[in-house]
Amino acid sequence: MKVECNDQKTFRLTEQAHLLGELTYKNFFSYKAEITLTNSERYEIKPVGFFGTSITVTKNETEITDLKMNWKGQIVMTFQDGQEFVFKAKGVFRNKYVIENKEEEELILFDPKFNWGQFNYDYEISYDKKPQDILLVLLGVYASNYYIAVVSGAI
Length: 155
Known about the structure:
Number of strands: 12
CATH topology: Porin
Oligomer: single chain
Helix content: 10-25%
Order of helices and strands: EEEEEEEEEEEEH
Protein backbone atom coordinates (compact mmCIF):
# COMPACT_ATOMS: atom_id res chain seq x y z
CA MET A 1 0.00 0.00 0.00
CA LYS A 2 1.06 3.54 -0.52
CA VAL A 3 -0.29 7.03 0.05
CA GLU A 4 0.40 9.87 -2.32
CA CYS A 5 -0.41 13.53 -1.88
CA ASN A 6 -0.40 15.75 -4.93
CA ASP A 7 -2.17 18.94 -3.79
CA GLN A 8 -1.07 19.20 -0.12
CA LYS A 9 -4.65 18.52 1.07
CA THR A 10 -5.64 15.14 -0.41
CA PHE A 11 -3.92 11.88 0.49
CA ARG A 12 -4.90 8.95 -1.75
CA LEU A 13 -4.46 5.40 -0.42
CA THR A 14 -3.81 2.89 -3.20
CA GLU A 15 -2.75 -0.70 -3.54
CA GLN A 16 -1.47 -1.91 -6.91
CA ALA A 17 -2.96 1.22 -8.58
CA HIS A 18 -6.44 0.58 -7.06
CA LEU A 19 -7.87 3.43 -5.01
CA LEU A 20 -8.89 2.31 -1.49
CA GLY A 21 -9.78 5.68 0.03
CA GLU A 22 -8.86 9.32 0.51
CA LEU A 23 -8.03 11.62 3.38
CA THR A 24 -8.86 15.23 2.48
CA TYR A 25 -8.14 18.22 4.70
CA LYS A 26 -10.60 21.14 4.66
CA ASN A 27 -7.82 23.73 4.22
CA PHE A 28 -4.06 23.84 4.32
CA PHE A 29 -3.56 24.76 8.02
CA SER A 30 -6.56 22.88 9.41
CA TYR A 31 -6.93 19.62 11.26
CA LYS A 32 -10.49 19.25 10.06
CA ALA A 33 -10.58 16.51 7.46
CA GLU A 34 -12.75 13.94 5.78
CA ILE A 35 -12.09 10.30 4.97
CA THR A 36 -13.89 8.84 1.97
CA LEU A 37 -13.75 5.11 1.28
CA THR A 38 -14.41 3.53 -2.12
CA ASN A 39 -17.78 2.22 -0.90
CA SER A 40 -18.87 5.89 -0.47
CA GLU A 41 -18.64 5.84 3.32
CA ARG A 42 -17.63 9.26 4.67
CA TYR A 43 -16.08 10.08 8.02
CA GLU A 44 -15.56 13.56 9.41
CA ILE A 45 -12.49 14.32 11.53
CA LYS A 46 -12.37 17.40 13.73
CA PRO A 47 -10.52 18.63 16.81
CA VAL A 48 -12.63 19.10 19.94
CA GLY A 49 -12.05 20.67 23.31
CA PHE A 50 -10.67 24.02 24.33
CA PHE A 51 -7.19 23.50 22.88
CA GLY A 52 -8.22 20.93 20.28
CA THR A 53 -6.21 18.26 22.10
CA SER A 54 -8.75 15.56 21.29
CA ILE A 55 -9.86 14.59 17.84
CA THR A 56 -13.17 12.95 17.10
CA VAL A 57 -14.16 10.89 14.07
CA THR A 58 -17.85 10.77 13.18
CA LYS A 59 -20.00 9.09 10.57
CA ASN A 60 -23.46 10.60 10.00
CA GLU A 61 -23.05 12.67 13.22
CA THR A 62 -22.36 9.49 15.24
CA GLU A 63 -18.98 9.24 16.97
CA ILE A 64 -16.95 6.30 15.70
CA THR A 65 -13.62 6.89 17.43
CA ASP A 66 -11.54 9.50 19.17
CA LEU A 67 -7.83 10.18 19.05
CA LYS A 68 -5.91 11.57 22.02
CA MET A 69 -2.20 12.16 22.46
CA ASN A 70 -0.88 10.77 25.73
CA TRP A 71 2.10 11.93 27.81
CA LYS A 72 4.40 9.52 25.99
CA GLY A 73 3.74 11.27 22.67
CA GLN A 74 1.61 8.40 21.43
CA ILE A 75 -1.82 8.81 19.87
CA VAL A 76 -4.42 6.49 21.35
CA MET A 77 -7.32 5.59 19.05
CA THR A 78 -10.36 4.39 20.97
CA PHE A 79 -13.27 3.01 18.96
CA GLN A 80 -16.82 2.91 20.26
CA ASP A 81 -16.88 -0.90 20.03
CA GLY A 82 -14.07 -1.09 22.60
CA GLN A 83 -11.14 -1.63 20.23
CA GLU A 84 -8.08 0.41 21.09
CA PHE A 85 -4.96 1.05 19.03
CA VAL A 86 -1.81 3.04 19.74
CA PHE A 87 0.00 5.08 17.11
CA LYS A 88 3.63 5.80 17.96
CA ALA A 89 6.95 6.83 16.52
CA LYS A 90 9.58 4.18 15.89
CA GLY A 91 13.18 4.00 14.79
CA VAL A 92 16.43 5.64 15.84
CA PHE A 93 15.31 9.04 14.59
CA ARG A 94 11.62 8.38 15.35
CA ASN A 95 10.92 8.87 11.66
CA LYS A 96 8.67 5.86 11.11
CA TYR A 97 5.33 5.19 12.75
CA VAL A 98 3.38 2.11 13.77
CA ILE A 99 -0.10 1.23 14.86
CA GLU A 100 -0.18 -1.40 17.59
CA ASN A 101 -3.06 -3.27 19.18
CA LYS A 102 -3.55 -3.68 22.95
CA GLU A 103 -1.13 -6.61 22.97
CA GLU A 104 1.56 -4.28 21.52
CA GLU A 105 1.67 -6.23 18.25
CA GLU A 106 2.70 -4.04 15.32
CA LEU A 107 -0.13 -4.06 12.81
CA ILE A 108 0.78 -1.34 10.32
CA LEU A 109 4.06 0.50 9.62
CA PHE A 110 4.03 3.98 8.05
CA ASP A 111 7.21 5.17 6.39
CA PRO A 112 6.86 8.85 5.38
CA LYS A 113 8.90 10.14 2.47
CA PHE A 114 9.19 13.89 2.11
CA ASN A 115 8.53 15.01 -1.45
CA TRP A 116 10.55 18.20 -1.99
CA GLY A 117 8.92 18.94 -5.33
CA GLN A 118 5.41 18.93 -3.87
CA PHE A 119 6.54 19.96 -0.35
CA ASN A 120 4.49 17.25 1.36
CA TYR A 121 4.72 13.65 2.57
CA ASP A 122 3.94 10.44 0.72
CA TYR A 123 3.82 7.18 2.66
CA GLU A 124 4.88 3.61 2.10
CA ILE A 125 2.69 1.35 4.22
CA SER A 126 3.72 -2.16 5.18
CA TYR A 127 2.18 -4.90 7.29
CA ASP A 128 2.50 -8.60 8.06
CA LYS A 129 -1.21 -9.29 7.72
CA LYS A 130 -3.21 -7.13 5.31
CA PRO A 131 -5.41 -4.75 7.30
CA GLN A 132 -9.11 -5.26 6.64
CA ASP A 133 -10.04 -1.87 8.05
CA ILE A 134 -9.08 0.80 5.52
CA LEU A 135 -10.45 3.43 7.92
CA LEU A 136 -7.74 2.44 10.44
CA VAL A 137 -5.04 2.82 7.76
CA LEU A 138 -6.27 6.29 6.78
CA LEU A 139 -6.53 7.28 10.45
CA GLY A 140 -2.89 6.22 10.71
CA VAL A 141 -2.04 8.62 7.87
CA TYR A 142 -3.97 11.37 9.66
CA ALA A 143 -2.15 10.56 12.93
CA SER A 144 1.20 10.64 11.08
CA ASN A 145 0.48 14.08 9.67
CA TYR A 146 -0.72 15.28 13.08
CA TYR A 147 2.35 13.88 14.85
CA ILE A 148 4.75 15.42 12.33
CA ALA A 149 3.01 18.80 12.73
CA VAL A 150 3.12 18.62 16.55
CA VAL A 151 6.77 17.59 16.69
CA SER A 152 7.81 20.23 14.15
CA GLY A 153 5.91 22.94 16.03
CA ALA A 154 3.53 23.65 13.15
CA ILE A 155 0.50 23.88 15.44
